[in-house]
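User: I'm writing a tutorial on reading structure tokens. Could you give me a worked example: one chain, its sequence, then its tokens, then a sentence or two explaining what the tokens reveal?
Assistant: Sure. Here is the example chain.
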Amino acid sequence: MILTVKKSKSASLILGAGISHPRIPAGYTIIDQFAKAHTDLLQKYGLEILESSSNANSRTFVDHFSALFKSTPEIQNAFLEWLSVGTTDLQINMSGVPSDIHASFVIAWLNGLFKHLVTTNWDFLLEFQLEKLYEPDHLPDGSFPHPYDDPVSYTFSNGKQCWIHPASLYSLNAVDQDDFLWEARWTIMTSESDLENLYHWTKPIWKIHGSPFFLACPQCGGFSRWKHVNKLKIGDPCPDHPEQHLVPEINIWDKRLDKPSRPVWKRLKERLKRSDLVVVCGLSGTGSDSYIREAVEDHSNAWVVDPKIGVWNSQKITYIPYGAKELSDALIGILPSGNA
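And here are its predicted structure tokens:
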């Protein structure tokens, strides 16, 4: 498969919860853990917690929780705070920690092995690795880079050092008629309003299920922030439109993205169709993710990397029975190790 990736001109990489497991609980388990930690809150709104068996195994329970989440600001705030603010292992991992697996996927994308990077994950493990590349200690002399001159380095835990050309990280954009500014090329596509910031020079991460780190303003659309930097919560006035109140921008599993966020999915699906290769890792393709599986299986050159084939149709995809670690190791082996 790695030779196929190297030969590709427009590959897409789709990453699911499996790449962040066990750092982040996968699937309905995360709802189960929240429910057991907030029994009184959920019972206040009439949702009984299942004690004798896992709440994650009850589709009815998850459906009821999803309905409550959409309509109850107190539960919205509690769930997002539980996921993203604090010092528990879950909260730390959600915000992002060093990870060779996530770094290899990001750097492979930056170096052009993949043209499109897509994730269904709420966590910021991918974004954390990307932000680190903009820090001075990744540069040869510890200074701010001069784009197109100073390559950016990254060293994996196995000792391999790879390089990223700064043109993959920065773009020179006009500030006004006489002034230009080097800006980061990467951005996040989650909501319809984000599409307005999709330019030919941007490198979007298609974060199609949103994140607990995002809040949205009905007037200005996507308003993203790190919760531990900006102490904003659901119901607060939008900083740009005080008459509007912020709402969560996260998709719970009873939603199919192709319905509530149709413009985002439509734009991404067009890109997937134009890709000459689609690689999927860590995505089960079940339940509300079935629309992604259907799009992948319709592609003429789709590869699925996962320890278990699950519901994937082996007649429509090329199945590789490995996990995220094996795919990551293979990609690290072909990343450029010379000065970019």
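What the tokens reveal: The first helix runs from residue 2 to 7. The chain is about 30% helix and 20% strand.
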